[in-house]
Amino acid sequence: MLFSYLHKTLSEDIPLKKWTLDLEACLTGKAQRAFSLFSAEQNENFEAVRDAILTAYRLTPESYKDKFRTAQKLSSETLQQCATRPSLYLRPWFNPSQRLFNDDEFQAVMGKLVVDQLIF
Q1: How many Cβ atoms are within 10 Å of 12's Cβ, its own excluded?
Q2: Inter-residue long-range contacts of 115-120, CB under 8 Å, 24+ positions, other chains counted
Q3: How far apart are the C-alpha atoms of 109 and 18, rounded to whole Å?
Q4: Could you tell me the pTM of the whole model?
Q5: Which end of the chain is more exposed for a tag (fewer CB within 10 A), N or C?
Q6: Short-list 105, 108, 82, 106, CA closest to 95
Q7: Cβ–Cβ contacts within 10 Å for residue 54, how many?
Q8: Taxonomically, which superkingdom (predicted)?
Q9: In whole angstroms, what separates CA 39 from the centre of its chain?
Q10: SS3 for 106?
Q11: Per-residue pLDDT reduced to its tens digit, 44-73
């Protein structure tokens, strides 16, 4: 929901100041509770609202690190699927720039981290 909203606001060129006003109408559950903790003045700070919502859902770098460290092959997974899942946790954990993420050497290091995690 948050990511589709971000895509919409960016594609429609909606000013940053208006983002939280539009976002509030879309929120439910944990996200709505996180949003309600902010004062009217704080609600205008999209980055703070976004971070609070992500934290409410445990979508923080630390939670992705935990998911990576505890990843194991599920009985229903193929080896390829097993290797893909932990690699999906690395990017939000490390939060590299797009340039670094596209670097072949960086990708090789990430691949070795996944293999190392799955072996041990």
Answers
A1: 8
A2: 115/83, 117/68, 117/69, 117/71, 117/86, 118/71, 118/72, 118/73, 118/82, 118/83, 118/86
A3: 40
A4: 0.56
A5: C
A6: 106
A7: 17
A8: Eukaryota
A9: 25
A10: helix
A11: 888 888 888 888 888 888 888 998 999 888
Helix axes 29-36, 46-56, angle to 10 degrees: 130
Q: How many residues does the chain have?
A: 120
Q: Which residue carries 């983002």 as its tokens? A: 19
Contacts for 49 with CB less than 8 Å, ≥ 6 apart: 20, 23, 34, 35, 38, 42, 43
Cβ atoms of 44 and 93 closer than 8 Å = no
Under-70 pLDDT residues of the chain: 1-10, 120
d(Cα 95, Cα 52) in Å, to the nearest integer?
Answer: 18
The structure tokens 């939060």 sit at: 95
Q: CB neighbours (10 Å) of residue 56?
A: 16
Cα(118)–Cα(48) distance, integer angstroms: 35
Q: How far is the CA of 34 from the CAs of 8, 18, 42, 53, 86, in angstroms?
A: 21, 18, 12, 6, 28
